[in-house]
Structures are given as structure tokens and as C-alpha cells.
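We emphasize that the prediction below concerns an isolated chain of 407 residues; any contacts that depend on oligomerization or on bound cofactors are therefore not represented. The input was used exactly as deposited, without trimming of termini.
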Amino acid sequence: MNDSHPNRAHYLEAVTHAAQYLAAMRAGTEVWVEFGELVRSFFDPDLVAIAGREPEGGVTFRFAALPADAEAPRLLECLRLSGTPVLESGFLSTELMALPGRYAVALLPLAEGKAADTLLVVGHKGDRPLPRHLLEVYLAVTGLMESTLTRLRVEMQLRRMNEELETQVGQRTAALQEAVRELQEINYTISHDLRTPLRAIDGFAMILLKDYGGQLDAEGLRLLHIVRENTRQMGRLIDDLSAWSRAGQVAMAPARVDMGVLAEAVWRERQADLGDRHVEFRLTPLPEAVGDRALLREVFARLLDNALKFTRGKERAVIEVGGRCEESEYTYYVRDNGIGFDMRFAGKLFGVFQRLHPEQPLEGTGIGLAVVKRIIERHGGRVWAEGAPGEGAVFHFALPVKEERHG
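Result of the prediction step, given as a C-alpha cell string:
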């Protein structure tokens, strides 16, 4: 072999460039072709090939750039004679003299995983083994390539996992959309189809009372009044279920809302229905919020109705609405001095059809607080309650601090 090889500095610079090139290699490319071209371009061997063991046995080239006197069949024959130990154990050979023209050849195993089933073959013409520094350069390059193979394998795994995840998300999204569609159909049925028979029942009961009431005894009249009251209660239940459904589906129009003005307006609407009740209403300054005005109005309406309901037995009822600014959220509350509740059951308060006082003759369907929870959670907020039997209750809700969006 002649001593015309470039110096060590040149090879070190070439290794640096090779490392940068391999770092940019991405999964899905022709990895072995790119690596073979890299070795040929950066290190200028007289022959370069990448041999690999096939699953069915035998050794074939995954890349080959060979001179005319080192044709592929002859080189493969040489690899079969001297390369088997390399492929089995990772042994490094530095000479392969069986080719015409006398090449000094390095056989460098490349491990794809645990087994070294791929071999980098590089050769330089000459009659002496490759210099040590050149062997170290090729060893460094194969080490870089092994690291690249590991990275690419991880990238491929991540890509497959992401594709599987996207497929699962797509399937679950489709299932969720189908469930929403079915819920909308059920809600439509409840809101429309069930009202017709209810109206018929109530209407016929009213006709019986009007036209035949004089022929009924007290028990018959009582039963007809029960029928009418239950149809009205069923109507209220349908209204509340519809409200609960709309709270989760209606498009939101976020804007800055003066919560104090909103709470006061909702309270004024209820004053006309108080009759001879003595209710003291206290409104402390409330921080503004960003949200859907109509939905937040529904929140105050439900909470104030709840407070009025559970203070009905009080000679002097007190209902207070307040709030404060915190670092990341605005919090609001509606406090009453009504019958309260046992904190052991606080987790049930905001569920659908949950009534903590079934023994009390109070109106309602057990959906009002569930509507509140759904609206506040759609705003990115949270709800909770505190209370004690006979000592009243406080219902809180918090809204995140947000900037109003325009356009």
C-alpha cells in the first residue's frame, strides 16, 4: 500500500461532517444507500460496500460502489470465506487479499439491535494493512452509524405509536360524535315528543275537573289534582333536561361581563314572585369576568332559585352574593341561611337528579345545580359547596382570569 492517504486532521474533519450528516438523517430514508454514499464521499476509499445477512440466509449487498477489478460476485465470495466470523461475532479483520489488485480491506460490523448482521466493507489499494488511524476513523464512523440506527429505530417506533394514537383518537372522536348525536336525538325526543302526551293528559284532566268536577267526590278530585301536578312536574323536568343539554352544546360568545349588574338583574326578576316573604338580599362588589353572558345569567338564576327554595321556611331569609379576585381566577358565591346540607354528601350536589332532601316538600327536579356545573366547566372553571344542616349553605364557582377576545 502506498502512503498517499490524507492525514489524521483531514479524517477527523471528515468524521465531524459525517456526524452532522448522520444527525440529520431521518427515519423512512434509504438508510444504507445514504450511509454508503457518505463513506464514499467523505473518506474516499477505493471500494465500499455494505453487506447484510438476509432473513432466508446468505449475504447480499445493501450498497456497493466497487471498482472494475473488485466485481460484486468475487467480493461476495471473499466475504463468504472470511466474513462469516465477523457476522457471527463482530470480529474485525484488516486484510482481504484474495481480490485481484491486492486491496487492504476492513470489515466493520454494524449492529442493528443486538446482533451484528450488517457489515461495512471498505478497501484501499495497496500491499500493506490499513494504517491504525484510518481503522480508528472507520470504527468511529460505524459507531456513529450504530447510534443513528438506534435513534432511527426509536423514531420509527414513536411514529408508529403516534399513528396508532391518532387512529385511536380518530376512532374515539367518531364514537364521541356518534354518542353526542344520539344524545341530541334523545334530547329532541324528550323535549318535543314527550310534551304532546303530557299536554293531552293535563288537558283531559282539566276538562274532567271543569265538566265533571261536580260529579266527583273529594277523593276523585284529589286524584285529578295529583295527575295535573305530576304532569306539570314532568314538564318542568323536561325543561330542565333540555336546559342541561343546551348548557353543554350551545355555542359560546365570550365577552366581558359585569357580574354585579348581572346578579342584580337576575334578583330583580325574582322579587316579583316573593309575595309576602321577607328576604334580605345582599350584593357585595363582584369582579368582572369574561364569559358567555347568557350562560352566566343562567348560573346566577339557578343558584338564586336554589337559595330561595331552601330558605322558604325561614321567617327572615338572607341571601348574599359576593366575590373576589385571586391570582389566576375570579371566585363568586351565593350564600343563604336555609336548611343547609351534610358535607358528607357534598359530592352529590352537582349531579343530575340528585336531591339531598327528598323528605322535604320542595319543588325542583334535581338538575339545577348540574346545569350550573356544566356551564362553569365549559368556561374552564370549577364549582364547590359548603354547608351544615340547619346553618345554611354557600355555593361557590370560579372562573379563570382571561382576556376578552375580539373578532
